[in-house]
Amino acid sequence: MEKIRSRKNPHIRHFRQLGRERAYRRETGFFLCDGEKLLREAVLHRAEIGEILIREGAPAPALPGVPVYEAAPEAFDFASPLENSPGPLFTVRRRDLPATARPDRVIALENVQDPGNVGTVIRTAAALGADLVVFLGDCADPWQPKTVRGAMGALFRQPLLETDTNGLMERLTAWELPLYGAALSEDAADVRTVPLSRAAVAVGNEGRGLTPELLSRCAGELIIPMRAGSESLNAAVAASILLWEMARGG
Q: For residues 217 and 171, is the Cβ–Cβ distance under 8 A?
């Protein structure tokens, strides 16, 4: 096992860039994870682990074929996106949507910028059996460390897709799935009255909702019934309710 002392070591720089740079994550196809629990989840779900970095003196995981590096505290802290992380840090290859995929239940997020909300939706989608989570517009990066922590290991098993409105519509047409938009409008139908066992549902930014462009491409609009005078729901809560309706075959 290689022992690393310098913050300038290429492995340290690699871990640091994965934790901080969206473009670098896209370039390499890997993202950064932290902690023993996530490592156990990654192994359980047979994620492709690239390499592991442990803090000096910590026990080294024994994973055949996966290189492990031991870093001095200063180098480890430089690599980690968290303060005082006990580690381990490890890299995982992204799961891309297979070209042959034909999902039945799709949740799409548009301009949802809070990484905690994005992570929660990914986690809920995996729990309720959604086939795909789609990210449109200015969404939080689903592979950044805050989102990864919020997803609680769901990234290792939940298919994701980043695209634009045209790209989404092309796929939905090929998959023969209607698209519904969650919207606070007089034309929106009660979500409990619309069959969603084979459908895509889009949820927008909490402040502005879905863009007019995306709403114009929807087959219909949905609303979650609430008591009069209630504020609009958090994007992750709204998406979770819609995912439940999709899961129960409503």
A: no
Q: How far is CA 189 from CA 50, 105, 154, 186, 209, in A?
A: 46, 19, 31, 8, 16
CB-CB neighbours of 234 under 10 Å:
14
Using only C-alpha atoms, the chain has a radius of gyration, in whole angstroms, of 20
Measuring CA to CA, which residue among 218, 245, 200, 194 is closest to residue 105?
Answer: 200
Q: Supply the pLDDT for residue 95.
A: 87
Q: What is the C-alpha separation between 179 and 150, in angstroms, rounded?
A: 26
Segment holding 5, helix H or strand E: none
| DSSP 8-state code for residue 191 | G
Is residue 98 in some structural domain? no
CATH code: domain of residue 237: 3.40.1280.10
Residue 123: pLDDT above 60? yes
Structural domain including 71 reads: 2-93
Structure confidence at residue 250 (pLDDT)? 53
Give the C-alpha separation, 107 to 102, whole Å.
Answer: 14
17 vs 213: CA distance, rounded Å: 35
pLDDT in tens, 169-188: 999 999 999 999 999 888 89
Report the predicted TM-score, pTM, of the whole model to 2 decimal places.
0.93
Q: How many domains does the chain have?
A: 2
8 Å CB contact between 183 and 209: yes
